[in-house]
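Structure ticket #2291
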Amino acid sequence: MASVLHGSARTTPRVRAELQASKESTRTLAARYGVNPKTVAKWKKRTSTVDAPMGPRDPHSTVLTEVEEAMIVEFRRRTLLPLDDVLGGLREAIPKLTRSALHRCLQRYGISRLPRSEENAVKRGRFTETKIGYIHIDSCELRLTEGKLHMFLAIDRVSKLTYVEFHEAADTSTGPAFLSGVVAAFPYRIHTVLTDNGVPFADLPKNRNGPTARLRGHRFDRVCREHRIEHRLTKPYHPWTNGQAERMNRTIKDATVKTFHYDTLDSLKAHVLAFVAAYNFAKHLKALRWRTPFEAICDAWTKDPLPFNINPHHLIAGPNS
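Resolution: structure written out below.
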């Protein structure tokens, strides 16, 4: 492979080799090749025809300190996260960190490229572009020694705003009750709801087309019609279709029941609600361009307040709340 010449080079590797092999004087060679005598003397002293590396001999950042660079390198090596995820994870610890400064730091330490996985990467699809008010709803069980709780969760596809409730059972009455709570909690109008085929949200597929089911309808669908919400169901036995809610369920479990021990169900409820509040108001998400869900809905309200029922700035907790 041919070497790349410096942009201001006046000689080629062939000319440099001829200068090194020649016994003639420096002045004579300079006149013959039309270069400066200093250039001839420089190449006569060298044993290679390759340009010397440019730039500082000891590269270092003018923005980051040695301690901050060590933090970045250790964080990258332990997490193996992509560049943007590393930037998001270290923004609070290193406020002056920029994307370009981070990339240069990783290049200096030879870790700018992540190792390729031996397994074939799964091709991830993207959601169809939609406006704020498309809600994913799901439920899961939280188990303790004292008993179990059914946690119902709703998350907006666009703003990532999350709302949870706890119920003792997951039946045909708790699903509609939860949807009513979601409508009251979200500061904007909900136009679409996506759920799985569970009993709280729909009749079982085998009974859905029967005369009784068609006549009475499911209570969840009644609440949807009351609030002019379109109810969509995932394909049976395809839970990944509602993956956004499934993933948020797992995130909450990883931060609570899979990490801590709770003496009572009330302490579990309090911790989950505190985690969701922190997620909505303090968690900077890559999908939102490192904004929080609260900042995302405030930006949406500024652009178009028509879908909103209230000013979302009123949602923030006060000193006495």
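Closing remark: The two ends are 69 Å apart (CA to CA).
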